[in-house]
Amino acid sequence: MMNRTEFMGRYHQRSNAESAFSMVKAKFRDHVRSKTDVAMKNEVLCKFLCHNIVVVHQAIAELGIEADFWKQASPVNTLTVWNGPTTAC
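Now predict its structure.
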């Protein structure tokens, strides 16, 4: 028999998972259009990926969080232009 805190911890994990499924179904409908098993799996994974991106974006916008997903080694606006092969005279 589980104690109350262990039960509530597992219950909230289940509750969070059910909430996520409900949000994805509401946003992207509850059916899958793909025909093959691999395509169906990929479609569902893409739905969850899009859902996660929307949730992160919403949290950034609502909470005023500064997003820093990775450190940049060089400036963003650096552009290297290739001028074609050089010929030695």
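The chain has a mean pLDDT of 83.
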